[in-house]
Amino acid sequence: MQIELSAVHARHPALRPEAPDTLRGLDLRIGAGEAVALIGPSGAGKTSLLQLMGAALPPCQGRLLLDGQDPWRSGAAGLRALRRQLLLAPQTPPLPPRQRVVTAVLAARLPQWSLARSLMSLLRPQEPERALAALEALGLGDKLWERVDRLSGGERQRVGLARALVGEARLWLVDEPLSALDPTRAAEALELLLRTARARGVTLVASLHHVELALRSFTRVIGLREGELMFDRPAAEVSPALLSALYAQHESELLQPLASPEPPVVAPVPLTCR
Length: 274
Ligand SMILES: Nc1ncnc2c1ncn2[C@@H]1O[C@H](COP(=O)(O)OP(=O)(O)OP(=O)(O)O)[C@@H](O)[C@H]1O
Known about the structure:
Blueprint: E1 3-10, E2 23-30, E3 35-39, H1 46-53, E4 61-66, H2 75-84, E5 86-89, H3 101-106, H4 115-123, H5 128-137, H6 153-166, E6 171-175, H7 183-200, E7 203-207, H8 211-217, E8 220-225, E9 228-234, H9 240-246
Parallel strand pairs: 3-7, 3-8, 5-6, 6-7
Antiparallel strand pairs: 1-2, 1-4, 8-9
Helix pairs in contact: 5-6
The protein binds adenosine-5'-triphosphate.
Pfam family, one: ABC_tran
GO molecular function: ATP binding; ATP hydrolysis activity; transmembrane transporter activity
Organism: Inhella proteolytica
């Protein structure tokens, strides 16, 4: 799915009238099948931009087009139809606590199913093999019948990603998909998302706090700060100076060094047994 933003401003409905717009004057074009990383300090507007692209937050000025169609001028049925074609994955997937993992993953099949089949799936999960394949790819094959509230934070996050894999959305908007994963799992999960998106021609926009991973894995990186686009460049052109300006006064968030440093020399720790 192609995304086009022209001079877009957006603000959350709960903002005080005197507060500035959350997103300000964004011009952006993302082609169908492209993969783009969104980076920027906390509060920069990454989540808001994903919500805007996912037709969950309307522009208050300017225009958003998804595949050439303005979701906010498509009527209620048109808006629903567009939303069915995209997946907006929040940082913490809203999973009902007592639900089985299989049912939570298969929720992404609902747009493809009739109402009768959707209701039937609540009693007897339909197409469980799809959920199993997605979970296995994410290293969670043994959790298919587990209850969601018995999973760790990182496992829940992977259940959220499994939803993307079983669905048929043409646009994946994923917010911090790796925040609860250890570095190895994070890199593997991101690689899986990118590979699958590429194979299916899905457009992928992911917000990432892990800057080094964003630069290593994506060819295009967008830097957002205070609701404005600071840069939109090939990853190879994102210099340390650009990153310093992007994260100025938020340096602590720029945790990962750009170049891999020498591995630290770890001194042996004496242990005393009593
Ligand atoms: N529902 C809301 N109502 C009012 N203001 C909001 C709402 N959600 C976000 N904001 C404000 O919009 C601005 C951008 O927030 P957003 O969550 O988009 O940033 P972010 O870059 O995703 O941050 P983080 O990296 O911490 O998740 C912030 O100032 C935030 O306080």
